[in-house]
Design brief:
7 helices; 14% strand; alpha+beta; 2 domains; single chain; 4-stranded mixed sheet
Length: 175
């Protein structure tokens, strides 16, 4: 989680954010629906079995349980960093099936993103997600059809951290 290093957080907070990032989608092994909630419980129990302090387990559990755009929100610095990292994860490499004729909208949008660059400007206290979308494969509007809630969640997570979130698509600043 690169957000913390540039904004002066303690090393242990950075490590907890990394752990949350590593475990955040573990709930998908149960079901995609409500994966954040089941993942929070699974992660909590794994970390408990490993002997982690209860306060740290709860921090990670809260971050994981609040990273889904349908049910979550930034409730801590760690959860805000997790949200920003997770919601900015859009790019061609995420698509394992490259048969264009079988793509759903998620595959099409991810495949159309040929470059995703997350930049941090610690002096101006902002994070910039710069995307290059191949509009021959997918119009930018399709990106927003599935990513509008994620984009707004990123904006609010950045606000929680008292930083600014910018989205730039194909050279145009949109947020």
């Amino acid at each position: 989680m690169i957000y913390y290093k540039n904004f002066g957080y303690p090393e242990r907070t950075i490590e907890l954010a990394r752990i949350a990032g590593y475990l955040h989608d573990i709930g998908n092994c149960v079901n995609r629906v409500d994966h954040a909630h089941s993942g929070a419980i699974i992660a909590y129990n794994i970390l408990k079995d490993m002997g982690m302090d209860v306060k740290e387990r709860v921090e990670i559990m809260m971050a994981i349980g609040n990273h889904d755009e349908n049910t979550g929100t930034a409730v801590s610095d760690i959860s805000a960093a997790l949200i920003l990292a997770d919601k900015s994860d859009v790019h061609r490499d995420r698509v394992t099936n490259t048969n264009l004729s079988t793509f759903d909208i998620h595959d099409r949008v991810n495949y159309a993103v040929t470059n995703a660059d997350l930049k941090i400007d610690s002096e101006e206290r902002k994070i910039i997600l710069n995307l290059k979308i191949d509009t021959k494969l997918c119009p930018v509007l399709d990106y927003f059809e599935i990513f509008m809630d994620r984009t707004m969640m990123s904006k609010y997570a950045a606000k929680y951290l008292k930083i600014w979130f910018e989205l730039v698509i194909n050279g145009t600043k949109l947020l």
